[in-house]
Each structure stands twice: as C-alpha cells, then as structure tokens.
Automatic annotation (TrEMBL), chain A:
This is Serine/threonine-protein phosphatase 2A 55 kDa regulatory subunit B. It comes from the Eukaryota. InterPro entries: PP2A_PR55, PP2A_PR55_CS, WD40/YVTN_repeat-like_dom_sf, WD40_repeat_dom_sf, WD40_rpt. Keywords: Repeat, WD repeat. Belongs to the phosphatase 2A regulatory subunit B family. It comes from Gorilla gorilla gorilla (Western lowland gorilla). Gene3D superfamilies: YVTN repeat-like/Quinoprotein amine dehydrogenase. The gene is PPP2R2D. One of its GO terms (molecular function) is enzyme-substrate adaptor activity. GO terms for cellular component: cytosol; protein phosphatase type 2A complex.
Automatic annotation (TrEMBL), chain B:
The lineage of its organism: Eukaryota, Metazoa, Chordata, Craniata, Vertebrata. Residues 30-77 form the SERTA domain. Pfam families: SERTA (PF06031). This is Cell division cycle associated 4. GO terms for molecular function: transcription coactivator activity. One of its GO terms (cellular component) is plasma membrane.
Length: 440, 241
C-alpha cells in the first residue's frame, strides 16, 4: 500500500474558526468512489474528489483534492434540558447519484440533514433589471430588453441543505442508512430506530423501540443499524450486549420482534467483568453481496453468514494483546472507543482501526492479515507502507513496538474502502490519509 | 451516584456477619481489586452525570458492570444484607437500580413517542415530541446534570434511595460527611474514599489482578483534602440546595 501522488498524505485543514483542530468523526466514499466525504467534530463536511487519469501526470490518478467544504451542523442549545447539542457529525451517507448533483445525508446527535452538492460552471450575464455588479438598474433607464446569456466561469461547487429531519430522536443518533429503494432511510439512536422518507421531514415511522417501560430495567442499547444492500425490507441492528437482530419490515410495523437473532455463545474460560463491555458491537456492515455482515467489537471483527445465527463464520483478532490490559483501558475509558470496520469492493478483504494510528487489514481468501500505520513518518509519497508488529511479550525485535509503548490517544476509529478500487481512506484523529494499492 | 443497596448490613445474622468480617479481614487480593473496580465504576457513573450529555451506551455498560460485581459479591457472601424494610424495596433480582445509577442520563428524556403505531399508519406527527417536552418540570440550573423527569414525589424517593446508598456504603471517616448530610439520619459514606481512591489512579493494582488474577499491589493510600472542592460540588448537587 502506498500513498499516491506527488503530495503528502492529505491533511485535514481546520477552518480556523475553532480553537482546536477538528477531529474527523466520519469518512465515507460515495457509490462510485469518485467522491470522499468527511465529517468532523466542528460540524463541517469536507468532500474530496478523485483526480481523473491524466496522461501527462500519470501518477496523479488516485489523488483526492478538496471539492467542497461546508458547515453542516451548528451547535445547538436545548433550553429545556439545559444541554448543549454537539455539532459533531456522527455519520455521513451518500445517496446514489441520479442526476448531475450529489446528495448526502449527514447527522449529528439529533438532526439529520440532506445536502445537495452541485456544480456551477456557468453564469448568466446581461440581466435587464440589474447591473453586472448586481445593483438594480433604474427602471426608467431600461429602454430595451435583452436575453441574458450564459458564460463559462470557474467551477464553483455549492452545497445547500434540501431537507432537515429533526425532532425525532430523544437519544443520540448513532447510525443512518439509506435503503436500496433510494426513497427511504433509517436513523437509529440508543433506544429507537426511525424510518424516514427522503421527501418528508415532518414525520417518521418508529420501527424499533427497545426502551423499557421502566427505565430501571434498561440494560441494553442499540449501537448500530444498517439496511440490507439489496432487500429493501430487511435491516439489522446491533446492541451493547454483542447481539445482532435482523428485522423484516414486512412482518410488522413495529419491528421489536426480530426475524433472526445473531449471538455467539460466550467462552466461559475468558469471562471477566469486562466481558460484556468488550462484546458490545461498535459497528455493523453488510457485505456488498448482501450475503454476509461484519461486526466490530472491542477486540475483534466477526463475519457472519446471514443464514447462520449461532456463531460467526470468521473471527479476526484486531489487537488481542489488549486483553490483559482491559482494566487499564476501562479506567481511561478507551474500552468504550467505537471502532468502525469496512469491506473492500469484492468483499474479499476487511479493514478496521486500532491504536497508535495502526489499522488492520484481513484478507479473507488467503487468511493473511497486516498491520499498517497512518502517520506522516511512515507515509512518504509513493513509498510503500511497512507492516508493523506489536510485541506482546518476551524479547522485542528491532522493528516491533511493545504494547506498553502504544499511544492510546492515537486511535483510528474511522476507515473507508473505495467501492471498486483498492483505495482506502483512514482518519487518524484530525488527519486524513489516503492510500492505494501500488499494484494499480 | 451510588447504587441503592450496594452494601447491606445483615441484621439478625450475627454469625454470618462475623464470618463475613473474618473473611474480610483475610481479604483476598481479588476482593480488593473487585472492590476497586466497583469504586471506579461508581465514580465513572457519577462523573457521567456531570457531563453535558452523558453517553447512554457507556452508562449502561458501566451500570451493568456494577451489577455484575454486586451479584458476585452477593453470592460470595461478602455482600452484607440491608435492614429488612430496605430489602423489600430492592428485590434481589434487581440489586442495583439502573435508574439510580444513571438517573440523570436517562431522566433527561422528556418526550415520549406517540403511542400505538398500529398497522403502520403514519405515526402521530413527530412534532408531538415538542409539546411534550415543553410540559416538563422546570430544571434547576445548578442541577442540570441531575434532571428529574417527574414531579416532586420522585425527588422524595430519590432522597430515600440516597439514604439507602449512603447508609449501606462503608465508611472510614464519617465525620466529614456527617455534617453535610445532617438532615438524614443514617451514617454516610465517605465520598472522599471513593473519589480519591480513584483519583489516586490505582493503576496496576486492581487492574492486573482482575484480568489474570495475578497477585495485586495494595490500593494506594488516598488523601481527602485535594478532592474536597469536588466533593462539595457533588454534595451541593445531591442535596439540591
């Protein structure tokens, strides 16, 4: 894997409006992979566009340059509860492209917005009622009519909010997912999942509600949800107890009863007080084929066959060496970090992040895995990334890093894989790295 | 926030108490570490109430951990039973009231969703949520982290639960707490011990043992003074001046 192009790995440039540089909170390629959207803690969305192949600059293919930047969400204050609603973008999901414009959904804890991103490369000149600089002309001076003409201009990319879906979530939204019907989408918070129609903002259907009548009995929350990529009536949601429920909206309006229930039986030999916490699923993703789904818990990534509920078909250890450090990680709250995971375009490989700016890739066919690092030092242009290794005990080899030297503040929670090519986007706190497979 | 009925005094089972005490005296490192984990968890829950918008998932996971420890301690017999009337209030299968543990986090939810979706007709407009929230009891600026989602009677029970909490938690130096809670007639737990024990950051001690049952280092000694300011703040909120 290499960092493409002549430039350094793309860095995240803060707008300067906020005191601290903004931490990237979500990364998502669009359906073609030509656009890459990132959301940050400050409520901004930055969209990158892939450079087209250019014969004069053969290495430029694969570079992503800033295409559009806009402020999606602002901090709000809930006066009733005396609480601030963070503007941090929790998730971005693209809509499939239907015309020249691009659409995406972005959400913070409470409000989902549909944004239209469109290009403007022409402007009209020769208006009758106003001057070229926009000043209104004195109507008495208008003695003749002319037809305004369109002239080319420098490309301008505009983002405008087309829909705002608000006031439907009492708890914090953790997921949004666009349905394969391209008309509806779901949004999930800790206790409820709502179904929306993209055209309708003043109402939504509640399709899952796990809030107990008596909050004293609450022991489990929803952690992630996603629609099936092809079956528009099917979605899954994961829980803090390590379970996944697959629901079919055809069976009933309120999908509190699942169609399938996925849970791996616990290994009694490894039980500890932290067992439940580390089993909590932080992300769930269907494979592109729709035949499998992948879940990420604290220490591992699991691949499930939708036809088998009893246990996953694959389990990949991300950083098993942390198992002996769980108490410390509980103390410093790292154990609650929510890592995401993603599939490559052909579903043959999966990727997820770890600490110390490490991220892991697992090849499902060859059963090989690799640990790579996203950092300035290791990402010289066109130089391959060196595999990294964590030393778990005993003698540390030269290139290895010991578990105690890992920097737990450098966590890679968000990664994305191009839907077709071997190009990946890795968010390391406030830096965005894009790598591509040098075989390309 | 401390768990209701976290520790209970066993009345009328003196032999067991003595046995338990004897067991405690020869307390294993595992128990110490388990206790540290419990204390750490309680502090985390308490801290999460002070945050602006607590993370519900985190709160639930911590509360579940506390419950697990509590259940194990009950089975061990290291859990001492509470006075009978309190025991009735807290049934065994719900030793720790999640609501008490995380009341503020969940009490902030004021709205209730429109009931009865029925057969899939359009849900009562989501705008229903707005009028519902506007009917909530006014909040106290100071105790914004301790929202009550109901009228005054909840507060009464809240105080009572606190009674139980404090009377049942062990106390080493009750003096500094007693004057703060002088209107409640039960002995109180020394928050300092909990807070500072954790602030002292018992890093290697409890953590190693609990994961591999390796021999543990004793919990570091704590000092009251540095955390009294924070303590005052917490108490202020609890007493709801």
């Amino acid at each position: 894997w290499v960092c493409p192009g002549h430039c350094e790995p793309l860095s995240w440039c803060p707008a300067g409006r906020r005191a601290c540089t903004d931490i990237i909170s979500t990364v998502e390629f669009n359906y073609s992979g030509d656009l890459l959207a990132t959301g940050d803690k400050g409520g901004r969305v930055v969209i990158f566009q892939r450079e087209q192949e250019n014969k004069s600059r053969p290495h430029s293919r694969g570079e992503y340059n800033v295409y559009s930047t806009f402020q999606s969400h602002e901090p709000e204050f809930d006066y009733l509860k005396s609480l601030e609603i963070e503007e941090k973008i929790n998730k971005i999901r693209w809509l499939p492209q239907q015309n020249a414009a691009h659409f995406l959904l972005s959400t913070n804890d409470k409000t989902i917005k549909l944004w239209k991103i469109s290009e403007r490369d022409k402007r009209a000149e020769g208006y009758n009622l106003k001057d070229e600089d926009g000043r209104l002309r004195d109507p008495f001076r208008i003695t003749a009519l002319r037809v305004p003409i369109l002239k080319p201009m420098d490309l301008m990319v505009e983002a405008s909010p087309r829909r705002i879906f608000a006031n439907a979530h009492t708890y914090h939204i953790n997921s949004i997912s666009v349905n394969s019907d391209h008309e509806t989408y779901l949004s999930a918070d800790d206790l409820r999942i709502n179904l929306w129609h993209l055209e309708i903002t003043d109402r939504s259907f509640n399709i899952v509600d796990i809030k107990p009548a008596n909050m004293e009995e609450l022991t489990e929350v929803i952690t992630a949800a996603e629609f099936h990529p092809h079956q528009c009536n099917v979605f899954v949601y994961s829980s803090s107890k390590g379970t996944i429920r697959l629901c079919d909206m055809r069976s009933s309006a309120l999908c509190d009863r699942h169609s399938k229930f996925f849970e791996e039986p616990e290994d009694p030999s490894s039980r500890s007080f932290f067992s439940e916490i580390i089993s909590s699923i932080s992300d769930v993703k269907f494979s592109h084929s729709g035949r499998y789904m992948m879940t990420r818990d604290y220490l591992s990534v699991k691949v499930w066959d939708l036809n088998m509920e009893s246990r996953p078909v694959e389990t990949h250890q991300v950083h098993e060496y942390l198992r002996s450090k769980l108490c410390s990680l509980y103390e410093n709250d790292c154990i609650f970090d929510k890592f995401e995971c993603c599939w490559n375009g052909s579903d043959s490989a999966i990727m997820t992040g770890s600490y110390n700016n490490f991220f892991r890739m697992f090849d499902r066919d060859t059963r090989r895995d690799v640990t790579l690092e996203a950092s300035r030092e290791s990402s010289k242009p066109r130089a391959s990334l060196k595999p990294r290794k964590v030393c778990t005990g005993g003698k540390r080899r030269k290139d290895e890093i010991s578990v105690d030297s890992l920097d737990f503040n450098k966590k890679i929670l968000h990664t994305a894989w191009h839907p077709v090519d071997n190009v990946i986007a890795v968010a390391a706190t406030n830096n965005l790295y894009i790598f591509q497979d040098k075989i390309n | 926030m401390f768990a209701r009925g976290l520790k209970r005094k066993c009345v009328g089972h003196e032999e067991d108490v003595e046995g338990a005490l004897a067991g405690l005296k020869t307390v294993s490192s595992y128990s110490l570490q388990r206790q540290s984990l419990l204390d750490m968890s309680l502090v985390k829950l308490q801290l999460c109430h002070m945050l602006v918008e607590p993370n519900l998932c985190r709160s639930v996971l911590i509360a579940n951990t506390v419950r697990q420890i509590q259940e194990e301690m009950t089975q061990d017999g290291t859990w001492r039973a509470v006075a009978p009337q309190a025991a009735e209030r807290a049934p065994l299968d719900r030793l720790v009231s999640t609501e008490i543990l995380c009341r503020a986090a969940w009490g902030q939810e004021g709205a209730h969703p429109a009931p009865g979706l029925g057969d899939g007709h359009t849900q009562g407009p989501v705008s229903d949520l707005c009028p519902v929230t506007s009917a909530q009891a006014p909040r106290h600026p100071q105790s914004s982290a301790w929202e009550m989602d109901g009228p005054r009677e909840n507060r009464g029970s809240f105080h009572k639960s606190l009674d139980q909490i404090f009377e049942t938690l062990e106390t080493k130096n009750p003096s500094c707490m007693e004057e703060l809670f002088s209107d409640v007639d039960s002995p109180y737990y020394d928050l300092d011990t909990v807070l500072t024990g954790m602030m002292g950051g018992a890093r290697s001690g409890p953590c190693e043992g609990l994961e591999g049952l390796a021999p543990a280092t004793p919990a570091p000694s704590s000092s009251c003074k540095s955390d009294l300011g924070e303590l005052d703040h917490v108490v202020e909120i609890l007493v709801e001046t």
